[in-house]
Specification:
Number of helices: 6
Structural class: alpha+beta
CATH class: Alpha Beta
Radius of gyration: 18 Å
CATH topology: Thiol Ester Dehydrase, Chain A
Shape: elongated
Largest sheet: 6 strands, antiparallel
Number of strands: 8
CATH architecture: Roll
Number of domains: 1
Distance between the termini: 22 Å
Length: 162
């Protein structure tokens, strides 16, 4: 997949996997910083000894929302940029499912399929990705999501076929 695409080419890419991100290590320091930022200090995330003794995970696990928050970095890493884009906005999620825990020290990556792209108004394109966050050496993904972003562009750049 090229690193950059044009608005006129987006419709033809619906149903296509746009990219797979690099692996990101989710270590205990990252989990602890996320706990501080969100004030979520549940022991399954922040106390390795207790999590090893009292959970089936063998140690601490990342917050589900930490894994979800990595989607922006994953997207930036591998999804082609739209040449005419002036700004991108996170619009939200239709569905998010947390399927498997991400153990401290594990590596995750995102897989992005362009599920839908539709023009809204003169200068916006709504894009929906089917996203899967894989855990290295695990069969089950950490999460799946239907993620919607809005691509803004100058209305003069809107394809005439749109």
């Amino acid at each position: 997949m090229p690193r950059q695409i044009h608005l006129r080419d987006v419709a033809a890419l619906v149903g296509t996997e746009l990219g797979v991100s690099r692996w990101i290590t989710v270590d205990q320091a990252t989990i602890d910083r996320f706990a501080e930022a969100t004030d979520d200090h549940q022991f399954i995330h922040t106390d390795p000894a207790r999590a090893a003794a009292e959970t089936p995970f063998g140690g601490t696990i990342a917050h589900g929302f930490l894994t979800l928050s990595l989607l922006s970095a994953m997207n930036f890493d591998c999804v082609p940029k739209i040449a005419e884009q002036t700004m991108g906005i996170n619009y939200g999620f239709e569905k998010v499912r947390f399927l498997a825990p991400v153990r401290s020290g594990a590596r995750v990556r995102g897989r992005f399929l362009l599920a839908e792209a539709r023009f809204r108004g003169a200068g916006m394109l709504a894009v929906r990705y089917d996203v899967t966050v894989e855990i290295e050496n695990e069969k089950k993904p950490a999460l799946t999501a239907d993620w919607i972003t809005i691509i803004q562009f100058d209305p003069k750049d809107r394809p005439t076929t749109a």
